[in-house]
Amino acid sequence: MTWHVLGAGSLGTLWAARLARAGLPVRLILRNAERLADYTRAGGLTLIEQGLPQRYAIPAETLDSDTPIQHLLLASKAYDALEAARQLAHRLTADASIVLLQNGLGSQDAVAQHLQGRRCVYASSTEGAFRQADFQVVFAGAGHNWLGDPLLPAAPKWLEDLQAAGIPHQWSADILARLWRKLALNCAINPLTVLHDCRNGGLRDYPVEVANICAELTELLHACTQTAAAEHLHEEVLRVIDATAANYCSMHQDVSQGRRTEISYLLGYACVAAERHGLRLPHLQQVHQRLLRHLAARGLPQN
Ligand code: NAP
Known about the structure:
Distance between the termini: 36 Å
Number of strands: 12
Largest sheet: 8 strands, mixed
CATH superfamily of the largest domain: NAD(P)-binding Rossmann-like Domain
CATH topology of the largest domain: Rossmann fold
Number of domains: 2
Shape: globular
Bound molecules: NADP nicotinamide-adenine-dinucleotide phosphate
Order of helices and strands: EHEHEEEEHEHEEEEHEHHHHHHH
């Protein structure tokens, strides 16, 4: 049974390399013939762990290849996930499983709705990786992966492959609670670090802003019946700010490097959910508006 991995970016490479070195069959799916030619020239994917590069000559194909797909790891950014799923839908077998590695919320439901009938497993990852060059990825931070299916609580048999590949993971009976909690932490920290142009630790200078956002996010989580995700949110936000004080968050890195952010699947998603529940969350909405203006002023997409 072959693992098809769409997206030879940071997480795609991290997962593909570990599956391949465990002897599992893996195929990469790249955008087009040009990306495939670039990949062939690179001679494979290089994963750098603790400073040591290792190359994996994983076979690759383009989106419009016609091999059937039984296991798909969708490792694109949230804003690319639905389009990628659309382009691959006709190649999925009737019993196909799709693992969705996207951060935030919204993209997973959109893909699952489009691929109705196929099993869509949502993942939440705290592993860290970044692209050092094309097809070269640095494994920057050990972490964990939670996987779960909001529609079907039973764990799939193929988790054995992740075990064999040494991918740290756990089946979660409530993956939505995990994704909501991560979204809330992200909404409380990332936009403010962009607006104040600071590392995570810089938010210690803005305790009132952080507290106000946390209070409103807690209210939102309760309205969305995500009670577990709401518990002690403010305390955890303060802990994360301290534990990652020296880091620039992913959204800050995206903005400072002129890359598109995943705002619509993070703070944007939270604001839409608040509106749906008729909640007035002025601090959250104000930060959202300020962030949209900040992105527009830098010529970056606002979605
Ligand atoms: P990334 O490095 O930008 O990789 C995304 C990859 O998807 C790129 O290689 C891109 O191709 C590819 N792609 C997009 N659309 C495609 C299509 N239609 N066909 C083929 N390939 C396509 O992103 P990432 O950092 O791995 O992030 C993936 C998701 O994981 C995000 O939601 C992110 O927030 C989440 N996440 C990341 C980390 C991390 O440490 N990196 C940690 C936790 C969660 P091109 O190379 O051709 O552009």
